[in-house]
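Forwarding the complex inputs:
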Amino acid sequence: AQSVTQLGSHVSVSEGALVLLRCNYSSSVPPYLFWYVQYPNQGLQLLLKYTSAATLVKGINGFEAEFKKSETSFHLTKPSAHMSDAAEYFCAVKLPAGTALIFGKGTTLSVSS
Amino acid sequence: KAGVTQTPRYLIKTRGQQVTLSCSPISGHRSVSWYQQTPGQGLQFLFEYFSETQRNKGNFPGRFSGRQFSNSRSEMNVSTLELGDSALYLCASSPDRGVTDTQYFGPGTRLTVL
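Prediction (whole assembly, two chains):
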């Protein structure tokens, strides 16, 4: 069965520092991958998605992620953290024939000034 | 376009009661999915509806059910509530059932079971 592992339930960075949130997937077939962000008391907002068109995917708010098949990874990065980036981030996967999103456990990002 | 709306936003029930949650998808979206979010289990897929038919179902007991109307609006029902059903219930809509279709989430309904 496919699954998603997010390494690190909590990541803390300083404002202006690099943000790196890790996501590894396990799937016997190439999956489709998504990163969502959730702010307190809100639903999930799509940051970016990988649909096999390009391995480096750029999303909203300066985030990007690179699909690495050899490492089964889809890590999320942002060159310079902003206070407003503090939120919970979820990596999710779908199989080619599937419609349901399978989510990782989430990573809470804290940004300090 | 208006986003996905869910009503009510907050709900308090007692064990044994039943509850109905409502979701209005983005205009033109035909697929509606439901997810349960809890601190312990994270985000879990409940079911998906398309053209008024359940197309996919997660691993939840039969107490959890849903339906979709001809205007794509959806409801989910939980009967005989248990304490463990306390969660944030999220609805997501997408234009179609394509695997690359983005699912757009509503703000959720927070259900507390006492």
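Chain B has a mean pLDDT of 95.
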